[in-house]
Amino acid sequence: VDPQQLDICEGEEVMIDAIGNVDGIYIWQPGNIEGPSISVSPEDSTEYTVQFDYGCGVLSSSAMINIVPVYPAQIICDPEQASFEEGQEINLSVDSVFSYATYSWDNGSNMPSTVLQALNLDGESITLTITYGEDCIYEITKEIEVREAVITMPNAFTPDNDGQNDFFKPTTMANIEIVNFRVWNRWGQQVYDNNNGSAGWDGYHNGEPAASDVYLFEVIYLRPNGTEESFRGDVTLIR
Question: Of 15, 182, 188, 209, which is the most buried if we count CB atoms within 10 A?
Answer without folding.
Answer: 182
